[in-house]
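To whoever is on call:

I kicked off a structure prediction for a single chain this morning and the downstream step that reads the tokens threw a length-mismatch warning. I double-checked the sequence; it's 153 residues and nothing unusual in it as far as I can see. Pasting both halves so you can look.
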Amino acid sequence: MTLETTSTARTTSRSAQLLLLGAVAFYTVAGLAAGLFYREFTKANGYPEGLMGQLGLAHTHILTLGMIVLLIAIVLEKVFSLSSSRLFHWFFWIYNLGVVLTTALLIWHGMLQVLGRESSSMIAGIAGLGHMLVGAGFVLLLLALFSRIRTDS
């Protein structure tokens, strides 16, 4: 590996880390805002306190799937240079599309629940698609990790 190749790999890894960190910051703000929205929306609509609903799950889904998983991905990038795998960018965009889709539909369904309105099968179908994208993202992350570990051996 030449000095120029090493420098390029470091730059790629650094930009991947910054990309992941930007997404972590977005999900942190979105997750905290979802918690605040849950509290205020249910209070404003007279939803019984302590009664679990879909809206209350959005806060933890965003923080766990968005913030925590991507913080782990930053560590994996730092250790294994996942961005050297061609699967890394596929993982990033497919996974994040899935998280956004899943949590957006979770919030939509939760709002309907708080308002006492019926949800449609369309909401369940689109949320299911979001879950499939999250699952596909995890598979891509594992494949990228596997390829980097195999290459480093």
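Update from on-call: the warning came from a stale cache, not from the record. Cleared it. Sanity check on the structure: The radius of gyration is 19 Å.
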